[in-house]
Amino acid sequence: MRHLQDYLFFKTIVEAGSIRKAAESLTITSTALNRRILAIEEDIGVELFERLPKGVRLSSAGEIFLHHVREQLTDIERVKSQIADLSGERRGHVRIACSQALLTAFLPAQISIYREKHPGVTFSVQKKDRKEAEESLRNLSSDIALVFEPESLADFQILSVSKQQTYAIMSTEHPLAGRPQLKLSDCLQYTLALPSSDYGIRRILNSKANRSAQSLSPAIESDSFEFLRYLALHKQYITFQISIGLPEDLSQLNMTAVPLNTKDVPYGMLYLGQRSGRTLPVAAAKFAQQLVNELQE
Amino acid sequence: MRHLQDYLFFKTIVEAGSIRKAAESLTITSTALNRRILAIEEDIGVELFERLPKGVRLSSAGEIFLHHVREQLTDIERVKSQIADLSGERRGHVRIACSQALLTAFLPAQISIYREKHPGVTFSVQKKDRKEAEESLRNLSSDIALVFEPESLADFQILSVSKQQTYAIMSTEHPLAGRPQLKLSDCLQYTLALPSSDYGIRRILNSKANRSAQSLSPAIESDSFEFLRYLALHKQYITFQISIGLPEDLSQLNMTAVPLNTKDVPYGMLYLGQRSGRTLPVAAAKFAQQLVNELQE
DNA sequence: AAATAGTGATGCAAAATTTGCACTGCTCTG
DNA sequence: CAGAGCAGTGCAAATTTTGCATCACTATTT
């Protein structure tokens, strides 16, 4: 859309912090870009930026305008997507913010299923922690978010909630492998490789440990679930994952996942949501619907 | 706003039903206008209009686009108004849809009060019946609506509700003048001049008459309250009005208003509302707030 | 203290886009 | 069947946007 170019330019400048830098990434001259901003400012009658020696910074009027610009840019996407859907062929782009656990198996599978029906739809998936995911919904940089144990839920419109059981992951050689079910205390006798404490799984385990006055002392902490998994394979450590985050090929890797007793370690909650009050583009709305159906099973 | 010109052009064409007619009112050539539409259509990839021999008509894609355009045009007004409010001086335009009864005394007084504080704010007031008022909120041609006994309340976000007592209006020479209070049956013995049946007051009176199996047979019906009032003055008829709609200068006109007993004819409800989910421009929001305060007394 | 490198703004000419005129082809109306 | 009203199009003029060179300013580095 031609008229929205100014909006995009403006947004890019805000993100770049300088007109010249923004101009570079927009493949346009800084002077042309500068003048477009000046023109907008004249239109509105207020300066959108403070001019600093190091670049530009939003004025308070600019903040208001930025908010409007973000809404516009996403709104026109929705409109285009609705219009495209009239002609039968679904097109568009779905932007997903999600917890790390979803990246391994669930989302790849779901996206693949969706794209078989609608190859015109593209996806971007960003791993975000709980805070970041909610923020990205708020500032419209994501359409939907899948968050395990979310934080505030402000502006978060819940589309689906599903209970997630925690599993212990270990090598098939591990003494505990083969048990039908475990308690957390069973695991504490072995060496643990845990996600860092800003992850939902860790919070679940922590709270159980605190309640039973046990101490959760991991030998290894990491923010990469994949790393933890490989560690558990080679070093006979135990790590944990929620059910939806279990890789499909564990057995091929000589690993196994044993569920933790839910009376011992309670279910965690996986939330699917969008920004409240927003109408999603068709593609995103339909994909969200697919996830809702899938999560209900 | 330069970029929104296309939107305004588009909207004008829709309303005019023809590119040439729209071009005329926009003081631009039909050919230039035509090409701007073609450009938009190329941008989106779909035809927005069906081309008919008599002009153009919206396609279904155009309908979606129109909806977006309307939201845009009002949204940018809100943004401008919010930005202007930063600099202290309030500017903007408030569009009000209201029932006829409000035009006589209430709204003129309220607008006058508001404009003393904020002379930069302009107003447009449109008399609408209950259906029309709600529709004008929905399609964003009004910011706020004041409706007596509204109909559906769909998409209608209620800002305030106030009870309105019904008054009988008559000449000071009338036999019933001077009574402290009346019952509907008292009035039925005299000749009535009533608003047409799509007005809220008439509905209130009708429902009472039906319940008590009385018959409401007006000698005169009109959709002009002013006409009815003058009629009542000169011909000794009785007409009715709700409290907020009573003119301030009745006594100077040798007329008087006598309240109807509320146990006989119940209160009617006056609703102040906006479209649900919408953030009003500063000027409109503040004016609405003033009305809410006023109506609470 | 001076040089340097970074920022946004501006005058001016070239490039690109938009506009208006004249005209086409179409359909419905009288 | 002629006429009026409609949208679309080729082309040249008018207007707007762009890019280059350059200015004025500031913070950092030498």
Automatic annotation (TrEMBL), chains A, B:
Pfam families: HTH_1 (PF00126), LysR_substrate (PF03466). It comes from the Bacteria. Keywords: DNA-binding, Transcription, Transcription regulation. Residues 1-59 form the HTH lysR-type domain. GO terms for molecular function: DNA binding; DNA-binding transcription factor activity. PROSITE patterns: HTH_LYSR. One of its GO terms (cellular component) is cytosol. The keyword Transcription regulation applies. Belongs to the LysR transcriptional regulatory family. This is LysR family transcriptional regulator. It comes from Agaribacter marinus.
